[in-house]
Amino acid sequence: MYPDDRVLVAYVPSPADFDLIQRQNWYRIPYASAPKGVYAEWVAFYFGAAFGSRKWSVQAYAPRLGHELLQRRDLLPDQPDHPRAEDWYFRLQLGAVTFLERPIISLQWRRITFLHTTWDRFQDAVELNDLFLDGEAYVDRAFTVLKDGRSQAQFPYTISQPSRLKEPRTLYYS
Fold this sequence. Notes:
By secondary structure, the chain is an alpha+beta fold. It has helices at 15-24, 72-75, 119-124, 141-146; strands spanning 6-12, 26-30, 42-47, 57-71, 88-94, 98-105, 114-118, 155-159, 169-173.
């Protein structure tokens, strides 16, 4: 685990879905609404209202080992007549699910489907807003989330040297 490891916080609507995650070690994301960041090293699970006293919190996480693209009917063969049976889904293969000693809670209800953060923020978070923290102690989240091996992530640095340049220049680091 490295501070700049990418963490995808993903919504889990029901205990039955979380049971499937734990038993079969995978999580599904509809291709049509998939976030950039399927390539995150970790997937954390944000529980929905159906979880009762555990609702609106991140309780667990797992390493992402890989992913593949499948139709829903192949993911859930016991639901062949589902209205979205023909739709495409990413199946994120996961390692063992680990429960947090101290859940990351939401102080108020939030509609979250996916949230990107970095491992250092995830480790330090007490409440959901902490996953967005900025500061010198944290890795640049935007740069980290963008670098997925396929895109050319660039972080702009503005350099200004009034004595030699007529106007500031923006350089890109990739």
